Structure formats: structure tokens, C-alpha cells
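Re: that chain you flagged

S.,

Sorry for the slow reply, it's been a week of failed gels. I finally had a moment to sit down with the sequence you sent. For the record, here it is as I used it:
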Amino acid sequence: MNPDIIHYDEMDSPVGTLRLVADRRGLREIRFERERHPKPAHAGWVRDAAPLRSARAQLEEYFAGVRKDFELPLHAVGTAFQLEVWEELRRIPYGATISYGELARRIGKPQAMRAVGAANGRNPLPIVVPCHRVIGADGSLTGFGGGLPTKRHLLALEAQVAHGDLCGVAC
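Prediction finished late last night. Pasting the C-alpha cells below so you have them in one place:
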């Protein structure tokens, strides 16, 4: 892969079309078709499925209920604080949820709930970096870049798989 080229491709999924974006260092973004703040592909990007083959395959496995953890090189671009929050998101177990307050406590900044929420909302790699697993302190679903129906779908998928109800997903 040319070190200066950013590749992208699109894939169909149960939550709509996903745009996958990668550079030579790894997967940079996953964009939902119906995002709150949609971003078009940049003019200099190259549409090429080959560099994104592994990401596509792993996402397909996730949606089929057979993959719980992703094994992909990632290259999320953000501030040091955002990167810290996004790394902690990756530690939330499959099928589990935590609150924004708990996420703030886990990074050692219990008073930074709003900043943690903002970083969570700017996560460029939803699903792979599971920001959908963060919910309100009262258990309510809160904002999600792909929309609350998508968040509901992802959490329901994980709950079904975690509880062994694969027929709810793959049958």
C-alpha cells in the first residue's frame, strides 16, 4: 500500500452501508451511511477493496455472531485524551455495557464525564472500538453517531450472541 494513499470501500451490513477507510498503518474510520454528521469521501482517497479485505471479513463475522474481538491494525487519529478514551473502550467486554461515569473512572478521570462523552462521540471506529457499549447511568441509550436504532441493534446482537441465542442472529 502506498504510504500516502488513503483507501476506502463500502460494505452492506445489517445496520446499513458502512464506509471503511484505511491508510498504510491501519483502519482509520468506519462511517455509517446515516450518520448524525456525515462526511463524504475525500477527493484524494482511492476506492480499493483489497486493503480493506480483512476489516470487511471481520465485520461480516461480527454481524454473523461469530466474532467478538477484532484483530486489525488500527490508526485512529485524535488527541491524546481521545486516544486514551478509545483505548479504554476496547476493554469493555463483548455483550457488556458501562456508563460514561464508569468510563471516566476507568481512565482515572472521574470528573471528566462530559469530556469522556465527547471523546466517545468522536470515535472514528465504531463497532471495532465499541462506543455503542457506553450507555447512560440510568441504563438509557444515549446518542450514537450511527443513530439509536443502530446502537440498539448492535447491543441486541451482542446480547443474543453472549447468551447463546445465535438463532436470533444467524438462523
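What I noticed first: The first strand starts at residue 7 and ends at 11.

Talk soon,
D.
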